Write a sequence for this structure.
């Protein structure tokens, strides 16, 4: 798939969505087109745009990370928005003012001191989560920095504790998600 980014046209290989859930076919909803409207050359490209919405902190092995303002202890990423089927995979659409960056570039980690922090990266994806499904439910968890997938979508490097996942009934997957 070709995307227009600034004045360049780039070809992206998207690995952000671990796998498409077999029970939810693209033909059920129709795939939307996704385009990239910004050009990110360095993690530093996020510094100024995100300052109004959070603070930059140093977090252990993850290095310089960003933490959003105004979120309480129960807040978690990918829980205020909608999953949208696209030609590039499941896209996370959110009204959070920083969602253009933090759900489509970089990865999230749950730090014991700061809570959820975002580690920037320059690779765009429709979302950076791992999906699980079974028993009439589907769930997703933010991928941690440095996680790597194998050829069948399996997580081969990185860990995802079970409490990182959010689950909803399969029939509600395309509906608006509200963490409350």
């Amino acid at each position: 798939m070709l995307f227009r980014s600034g004045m360049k046209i780039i070809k992206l290989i998207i690995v952000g969505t671990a796998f498409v859930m077999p029970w939810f076919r693209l033909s059920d909803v129709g795939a939307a087109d996704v385009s990239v409207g910004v050009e990110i050359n360095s993690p530093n490209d996020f510094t100024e745009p995100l300052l109004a919405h959070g603070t930059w902190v140093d977090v252990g092995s993850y290095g310089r990370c960003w933490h959003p303002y105004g979120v309480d202890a129960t807040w978690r990423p990918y829980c205020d928005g909608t999953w949208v089927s696209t030609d590039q995979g499941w896209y996370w659409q959110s009204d959070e003012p920083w969602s253009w960056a933090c759900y489509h570039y970089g990865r999230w980690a749950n730090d014991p001191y700061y809570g959820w922090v975002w580690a920037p990266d320059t690779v765009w994806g429709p979302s950076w989560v791992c999906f699980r499904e079974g028993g009439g439910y589907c769930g997703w968890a933010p991928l941690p920095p440095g996680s790597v997938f194998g050829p069948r979508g399996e997580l081969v490097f990185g860990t995802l504790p079970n409490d990182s996942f959010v689950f909803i009934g399969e029939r509600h997957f395309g509906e608006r998600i509200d963490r409350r």
Q: What stands out?
A: The radius of gyration is 16 Å. Residues 47-51 form the longest helix (5 residues). Residues 78 and 165 are 10 Å apart (CA to CA). The first strand starts at residue 2 and ends at 5.
